[in-house]
Amino acid sequence: MIELADEVRDARAVVALETTLVAHGFPRGEGTEVGLAAERAVREAGAIPATIGVLDGKIRVGLSADELGLFDQTARKAGPRDLAACAVQDAVGATTVGGTLAVCRVAGIRFMGTGGLGGVHRGFPHPPDVSADLGELARAQTLVVSAGIKSLLDVAATMELLETLGVPVLGFRTDELPLFYSARGGPPVPARVETAAEAAAVAGSHWELDGGGLLLAQSPPTSLDDVEPLIEKALAQAEREGVRGQAVTPFVLAFLHERSGGRTLAANRELVVANARLAAEVAVAAS
């Protein structure tokens, strides 16, 4: 069911990339360009990109540019629970962070770049919504580079749950967790690293102890410190319109992109590419 591209199978340093970000994280037509830019950043850093999605009845690890273009807003969001159904039903499945990590766990891929990690939704337990990203991160021996936790979530509660799950959170040249769009304002990180090599060494030691995944949090290249009021408005609008579950994140992102005059869209592009590049640097250091 899982099919690895030849260059992924033969590579020493591999970085996994998700496809939900391509399909649902950006306006129609822009996600593919962001995905390709992330792949270029991985290659420039000396690693091989393994963009993961469900296509033609298989879970594909490594996609061509043309195949990546098939992951648009019509694609199913494929978390860990959805991978098998997407493959059997021959659906185009755009993998979430959790879905990508589930594949990494089976394929033995140790590094991943993404935008932000999912977590505990605001207002928990009403709704009782916790992202599958967290469970898979705890299980997969994969280091995920992100701009912290998605700021539309309950970041403090998510950090507490990561501690419960035994997931190390490392700040890359920062002492506080970035809030996706903003470099400041998050809770303190348990440990700080200064270089890709140091992050790789911590990950290697964690895995020697039979640990699972790690989160390496990097501040976004452009920090937007005035987005929180817009996030609150977006979540309130989603509530009024009855938006639930997996539909919340793309709804909020679209709201932010429109109401910020495109500033959040530009920041999102930058941080996705920067995180892919750092993930590649860690992968190369580990290899």
Key features?
287 residues; eleven-stranded mixed β-sheet; 12 helices; 11 strands
What's the CATH H-level superfamily name? Indigoidine synthase domain
Low-pLDDT parts are: none
CATH class: Alpha Beta
Number of domains: 1
Compute the gyration radius: what is it? Answer: 17 Å
**In percent, how helical is the residue content?**
40-55%
Morphology call: globular
> What is the oligomer described by this structure?
single chain
Q: What is the terminal separation in angstroms?
A: 27 Å
Mean pLDDT: 95
Architecture, CATH level 2? Answer: 3-Layer(aba) Sandwich
Hey, roughly how much beta strand do the residues contain?
5-15%
Strand segment count: 11
Largest sheet: 11 strands, mixed
CATH topology: Indigoidine synthase fold
Q: Give the class from helix and strand content and strand pairing.
A: alpha/beta
How would you describe this protein?
With 287 residues, the protein is α/β, with parallel strands linked by helices. The protein has a single domain, classed as Indigoidine synthase fold (3-Layer(aba) Sandwich). It is globular. Helix 6 runs parallel beside helix 7 (132-139). Strands 1, 2, 3, 4, 5, 6, 7, 8, 9, 10 and 11 form an 11-stranded mixed β-sheet that branches. Strand 3 (48-55) and strand 4 form a beta hairpin. 44% of the residues lie in helices and 15% in strands. The longest helix is centred in the C-terminal third of the chain and has 24 residues, at 263-286. It starts with a strand and ends with a helix.
